[in-house]
Amino acid sequence: MKKRIDSVLLIDSNKQSAHINEEMIKATNLVGYVAVAYNAQNAVSYLKQRLAVGKDLPNIILLDINLPGVSSWDFLEIFETQFVDSYNHEIYLMSNDSNTKDVIKGSMHSLTQGVVNLPIIDWEINQILVNYSERYELHVA
């Protein structure tokens, strides 16, 4: 039996990309629930709501590096001040941009595990999920 991750939060302003990535995550059968937010404000609201009702926050957050409005960098600052102590988490930035400055900044950020290029390939999603399962020795589903 495969190890199971409770939930993943996908934050992506591109609805088509978000839908494709959501379906790829679901297809792995390694995740119980996939939440999608199309901007950082909705993602923060979602995280606050989960805490308010006593639920754990998502195990993994996949964050679009190029969010409009509240940026991914702003989201990371908010996350660090409001949520970082709430659970064991991993955050990956997603980028379809070859902006080397952002990729380096994202790779070096203390809250992130790294940067994944968009479009994400199914084996990359699978590798992120399997690595998380192994690092945190999740219970068998």
Mean pLDDT: 88
Would you count the extended β strands for me? 5
Q: Termini, distance in Å?
A: 7 Å
- Give the number of domains: 1
- The percentage of residues in β strands lies in 15-25%
Strand order of the largest sheet: 2-1-3-4-5
Count, helices: 5
Unreliable residue runs: none
Assigned CATH class = Alpha Beta
Radius of gyration, rounded? 14 Å
Helix-residue proportion: 40-55%
CATH homologous superfamily designation: Response regulator
Dominant shape: globular
What is the CATH topology descriptor?
Rossmann fold
Instruction: Name the CATH architecture.
Output: 3-Layer(aba) Sandwich
Largest sheet: 5 strands, parallel
| Secondary-structure element series | EHEHEHEHEH
**Helix/sheet category:** alpha/beta
GO biological process, one term: phosphorelay signal transduction system
Domain Response regulatory: 7-133
Protein name: Response regulatory domain-containing protein
Organism: Cryomorpha ignava
Explain what you see:
- The protein is an alpha/beta fold.
- The chain has one domain: Rossmann fold (3-Layer(aba) Sandwich), CATH 3.40.50.
- Helix content is 43%, strand content 22%.
- It contains 5 helices and 5 strands; from the N terminus they run E-H-E-H-E-H-E-H-E-H.
- It has a 5-stranded parallel beta sheet with strand order 2-1-3-4-5, with helices on both faces.
- It is globular and about 35 Å long.
Secondary structure elements and pairings:
Blueprint: E1 5-11, H1 15-27, E2 31-37, H2 40-52, E3 60-64, H3 72-82, E4 90-95, H4 100-108, E5 112-117, H5 122-135
Parallel strand pairs: 1-2, 1-3, 3-4, 4-5
